[in-house]
Amino acid sequence: xxxxxxxxxxxxxxxxxxxxxxxxxxxxxxxxxxxxxxxxxxxxxxxxxxxxxxxxxxxxxxxxxxxxxxxxxxxxxxxxxxxxxxxxxxxxxxxxxxxxxxxxxxxxxxxxxxxxxxxxxxxxxxxxxxxxxxxxxxxxxxxxxxxxxxxxxxxxxxxxxxxxxxxxxxxxxxxxxxxxxxxxxxxxxxxxxxxxxxxxxxxxxxxxxxxxxxxxxxxxxxxxxxxxxxxxxxxxxxxxxxxxxxxxxxxxxxxxx
Length: 257
Fold this sequence. Notes:
CATH topology of the largest domain: Ferritin
Radius of gyration: 18 Å
CATH class of the largest domain: Mainly Alpha
CATH architecture of the largest domain: Up-down Bundle
Oligomer: single chain
Low-confidence stretches: none
Mean pLDDT: 94
Number of domains: 2
Shape: globular
Number of helices: 8
CATH superfamily of the largest domain: Protein of unknown function DUF2935
Structural class: mainly alpha
Number of strands: 0
């Protein structure tokens, strides 16, 4: 499916967003598992199939939402378990994969975040605009900085100017993450409406996330035209552009989704 940034943000749309994220992660991991690791490869293939099935149900909106939510929670929990087990084995040098440990951790964090979002949907709990702002910034700015690190990881070193640009952008998002983390402790609970400081910071992040989304899609076009040497997985840039879009949309709406 090609890149889309206009997915519906109803309950089905949010479930589909997170299920698609895990589905993509499974596909990206699949290409980096050694052919010696047959058991891991089979387990991951099973997860890709299951995630894809539940994602399609969310896309079609023809399953009762309570039943679909239960399925989404179950399959995401299973995938999270596979990822954490694989990460533990990778840290202990007992598995042959080319996925960086930090990327496995990145996937684990998103699986955990999806479970938190599913719990919010199930409980019907409300999150204040200030809490939503701080949470979304702290979580997603780390993911955005990670994305730039992985783009650099996959880019061939012969792309000197592009590597320099990506490194500068990564460092910018790392600084923004440090500021967001500071807000987490500076603005103490109970938090309600956004303060002028948080509002100003949000506008900065919205601007930067929009620019990052555009950059990722520009690079995606170069990769698809074979105009930039890279070992990037297919559709990686579309995947992470969609997440940048998700961040700035959440900040505009002051929600956790």
